[in-house]
Design a protein that fits this description.
The chain is an alpha/beta fold and 339 residues long. The protein folds into two domains: 178 residues, Rossmann fold, CATH 3.40.50.2300; 134 residues, Response regulator (Rossmann fold), CATH 3.40.50.2300. Helices cover 43% and strands 19% of the residues. A six-stranded parallel sheet has the order 2-1-3-4-5-13, sandwiched between helices. It has a four-stranded parallel sheet with strand order 7-6-8-9, with helices on both faces. The chain has a two-stranded antiparallel sheet with strand order 10-14. The radius of gyration is 20 Å and the shape is elongated. Bound molecules: alpha-L-rhamnopyranose. Alpha-L-rhamnopyranose binds next to α8.
């Protein structure tokens, strides 16, 4: 709630500042601060709030940036498009987007770029042509395969597996799920199968209902993979409420701060994630480097990213942060204090 109130306050201040700026070309020019918006899939998600903490750390280090956190109330492309249209009118300097749809945002982000705004995607990508750089938290193949390996370890390479995802259009989850299916083809998983992918839309109540739906549809369900922080938390609650601990195993991508209880009581023995603070921090450094002309986004360039070192720009503007952590009883408390 406090976070929402502070966002509203910042937004109203920005609106005042932008209108006060009248017809000048760049909203940034007057106070020497470049204005960047960290546009997330939806508000009310602790993962993205941790990313914003990282963005604000970068702001403090860089000294020439101002980052405003924004997102629609639900994880939809329409909601993001509406916000981007407003930001074009306000002439912000950069928009860093975790996209709800890899293609649907392209026309509006192209319009933003034509207006001189630096657009990058991060976390959940926009397709080539709709952004300059796409920052992935980690290698998508690695993440997807690792998710399947984590559940296989828990079910002893056996049984029916359900996937509880975010939205059906989410670039990041869809890419990871594709690699889970690839991993599942290996001979060691012959006694295991993915029975269904369901979508909780990164909303806690829908994710919870979808998890319960999997339990009733598949009475022999051995495990759930939920590659979304909202989904894995809802899945853990559902398993606990239905008394299915030990019968239905759970893994996914979760925030240690939200999942500590379920990891320590064995509902979710192991899960993975990268550091979201570092992700928001890196996205901010990339925007600053693009705005100030340190980089253009061409393959082979090195992005100066503060404490994250230098990150190379790969083919088609792709950039990758680092390897995910795996959390279990032995380390969850330590990480829970950080994100
Ligand atoms: C949710 C969002 C986000 C994803 C994490 C793992 O918070 O879907 O995009 O990266 O989970």
């Amino acid at each position: 709630m406090k976070k929402i109130l502070s966002i509203l306050l910042v937004l109203s201040l920005i609106t005042v500042a932008v209108f006060a700026n009248g017809g000048s070309d760049k909203a940034a020019a007057d106070d020497g601060q470049y204005k960047m918006v960290l546009l997330v899939k939806s508000l009310g998600n602790g993962f993205f709030e941790a990313c914003d903490d990282g963005a604000q750390q970068a702001v403090a280090e860089l000294g020439n940036m101002e980052v405003v956190y924004m997102g629609p109330s639900q994880s939809t492309a329409e909601g993001q498009i509406e916000i981007i249209e407003t930001l074009i009118a306000q002439k912000v300097d950069a928009i860093a987007i975790s996209a709800n749809d890899r293609d649907a945002l392209i026309p509006v982000t192209k319009k933003a770029m034509a207006a001189g705004i630096k657009v990058i995607s991060w976390d959940s990508g926009i397709n080539i042509g709709g952004r300059i750089i796409d920052l992935a938290p980690s290698n998508a193949e690695f993440i997807g395969r690792q998710q399947y390996q984590l559940i296989a370890e828990l079910t002893g390479n056996k049984g029916q597996i359900g996937i509880l995802s975010a939205t059906s259009q989410a670039t990041n989850q869809n890419e990871w799920i594709k690699w889970m299916y690839e991993e599942a083809k290996k001979p060691e998983y012959a006694d295991m199968e993915i029975v269904e992918v369901v979508y909780g839309d990164d909303a806690s109540d829908k994710s919870y209902r979808e998890a319960v739906g999997l339990f009733s549809k598949y009475p022999d369900l051995a495990g759930i993979i939920s590659p979304t922080t909202i989904g894995v938390l809802a899945g853990a609650k559902a398993i606990e409420d239905e008394g299915l601990q030990g019968k239905v195993q759970l893994t996914g991508l979760g925030l240690p701060s939200e999942m500590q209880h379920y990891i320590e009581d064995g509902t979710c023995v192991q899960m993975a994630l990268w550091n979201p603070v570092d992700l928001g921090y890196t996205a901010t450094y990339i925007c600053e480097a693009l705005i100030t002309g340190k980089i253009t986004g061409a393959e082979g360039e090195m992005i100066p990213a503060g404490r994250m070192g230098e990150i190379p720009v790969g083919a088609d503007g792709s950039a990758v942060m680092g390897a995910p952590f795996v959390f279990n009883k032995s380390n969850v408390a330590k990480f829970a204090a950080i994100f």
